[in-house]
């Protein structure tokens, strides 16, 4: 926690995500252990069957914390890649749902990648299928709202300004939308 400048609660939440993913085994009163032979297919299967609320909680933990780190660690190359991805998303937001979801997942993966933490990026890559399914469901059942899409640009602005608290707040707002 001190090396990354994050709270112990954040580390605990991350450990829960890693345990949920099957990457670590938490033994009460004994400690946490890295699993040596994890089948990624099993992790993906578990994630695909998780409840909507569990998916939202996991997204909060992974994405919000990653975006906070990205605000501190992002490079100009990261910002340009995010601008490009957001522009592609904007072209599809009011059109084809499948095309929009694909573009939006690229944007969110680039947000996580901008944290420059390969383990976090890989975890999010596994989890993005759950995010995509939830987004697909929401976009076909709830009317599209421009203000929700605009949160993406506001997150990008917060990253540009290196404002992790604002970026995390906006991320939480987006996830709850």
Number of helices: 8
In terms of quaternary structure, the protein is: single chain
**Spatial ordering of strands, largest sheet:** 1-2
- Domains, number: 1
Helix content: over 70%
Strand count, sense and closure of the main sheet?
Answer: 2 strands, antiparallel
Write the CATH architecture name: Up-down Bundle
Q: What is the overall silhouette? A: globular
Predict the CATH topology.
Four Helix Bundle (Hemerythrin (Met), subunit A)
Percentage of residues in strands: under 5%
Number of strands: 2
- SSE string, helix = H, strand = E? HEEHHHHHHH
Kindly report how far apart the N and C termini lie. 30 Å
Structural class: mainly alpha
On the 0-100 scale, what is the average pLDDT?
86
Question: Which CATH first-tier class would you pick?
Answer: Mainly Alpha
Short description:
The chain has 177 residues and is mainly α.
């Amino acid at each position: 926690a001190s090396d990354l400048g994050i709270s112990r609660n954040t580390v605990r939440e991350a450990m829960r995500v890693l345990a949920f993913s099957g990457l670590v085994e938490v033994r009460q009163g004994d400690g946490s252990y890295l699993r040596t032979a994890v089948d990624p297919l099993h992790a993906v299967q578990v994630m695909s069957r998780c409840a909507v609320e569990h998916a939202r909680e996991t997204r909060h933990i992974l994405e919000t914390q990653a975006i906070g780190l990205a605000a501190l660690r992002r490079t100009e190359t990261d910002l340009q890649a995010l601008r490009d991805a957001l522009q592609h998303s904007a072209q599809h937001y009011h059109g084809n749902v499948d095309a929009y979801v694909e573009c939006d997942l690229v944007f969110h993966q680039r947000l996580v990648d901008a944290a420059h933490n390969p383990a976090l990026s890989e975890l999010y890559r596994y989890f993005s299928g759950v995010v995509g399914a939830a987004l697909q469901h929401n976009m076909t059942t709830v009317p599209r709202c421009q203000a929700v899409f605009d949160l993406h640009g506001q997150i990008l602005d917060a990253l540009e300004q290196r404002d992790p608290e604002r970026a995390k707040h906006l991320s939480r707002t987006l996830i709850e939308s």
